[in-house]
Amino acid sequence: MTLVKDSVPARTARSAAPAPAGRPGRRRENLAGYLFMSPWIAGFLLLTAGPMVASLYFAFTDYNLFNTPTWIGFDNFTRMFDDPRWQKSVEVTAKYVVIGTPLKLLLALGVALLLAQSRRGQAVYRAAFYAPSLIGASVSVGFVWRSLFSDGAIVDRTQTFLGFPVGGWVGNADWVLYCLVALTVWQFGAPMVIFLAGLKQVPRELYEAAEMDGAGTLRRFWNITLPMISPVLFFNVLLETIHSFQIFGSAYVVSNTYCGPADATLVYTCYLYQQGFKNAQMGFASAMAWMLLLAVALVTAVLFWSQKKWVHYEEAAR
Fold it and tell me: What is the pLDDT of residue 315?
């Protein structure tokens, strides 16, 4: 009886409590959220998703920007594999990615190791090394780079003075691609900052314990630094590899818009641009764009698969 009497006021109190906010309040909150997101949603649909769907359709058509697209199925893709210039663009791009990306990351890691040490004027050094990443992709830098590596320019005169008279790199089919590699390596500031942030997270106690055990500098770097910053290294490898596949501006400007000489700087995106806008073969260019997307997706999948063997996460260790 006592339990029943005590439960009556409790039920009355609960029934008198104010009800939680209902669906109208939630709908107003959701409406406000979608209203603030509407510029991004509109930009995504009109500038990203819409053009991607359109290019996927154009990839299976004969479309020259002036006439109505005509459905031709997989003809653009079969034509692509039989095109020697397309094969040349794949070769040039692969060579650029394989050479430029590792050199850029090695330089970025080396400078980050130097800047991770406490020294006077460290902030000035960081800003100076990061500055090329801010201006390196501009057209003006491309013109300057072409001037530096032309015949009779400072690079040519320096090589001649050192006993390597190979001439200007820009006009030499054997050297012009390395001119682009030098430009991308010069822009090592962004991965350097990411490496520097990763190095700051390595516990100093690990280095002190290794020194007490007699481990040298190289051994500490190999057994402590690299495993501890492997997630950061993976991120930089993934990001810089994708960026290398997308090279266009520097190759287009340095080669004076014709991606030469002898197609030596005919990177994939440069040939895509020529087919789509110079030759008005937008259907073929769309097929090339989707083939590039598939190639980048495949490389990304391989990198994610390989990280299980060399990337060490702190959560996994636990």
Answer: 60
Give phi and psi for 62, each to the nearest 5. Answer: -100, 105
HEC string of the chain equals: CHHHHHHHHHHHHHHHCCCCCCHHHHHHHHHHHHHHHHHHHHHHHHHHHHHHHHHHHHCCEECCCCCCCEECCCHHHHHHHHCHHHHHHHHHHHHHHHHHHHHHHHHHHHHHHHHCCCCCCHHHHHHHHHHHHHHCCCHHHHHHHHHHCCCCCHHHHHHHHHCCCCCCCCCCCCCHHHHHHHHHHHCCHHHHHHHHHHHHCCCHHHHHHHHHCCCCHHHHHHHHHHHHCHHHHHHHHHHHHHHHHCCCHHHHHHCCCCCCCCCCCCCHHHHHHHHHHHCCCHHHHHHHHHHHHHHHHHHHHHHHHHHHHHCCCHHHHC
* pTM, 2 dp: 0.86
Partners of 61 in the β-ladder: 71
How many angstroms separate the CA atoms of 56 and 289, rounded? 9
Integer CA distances (angstroms), 43 to 15, 28, 39, 268, in order: 48, 23, 6, 27
Q: Please say whether the dihedral angle defined by the alpha carbons of residues 208, 212, 218 and 224, taken in this order, is positive or negative.
A: negative
pLDDT at 272: 96
* pLDDT tens string 89-147: 999 999 999 999 999 999 999 999 999 887 777 888 888 888 888 887 778 888 999 99
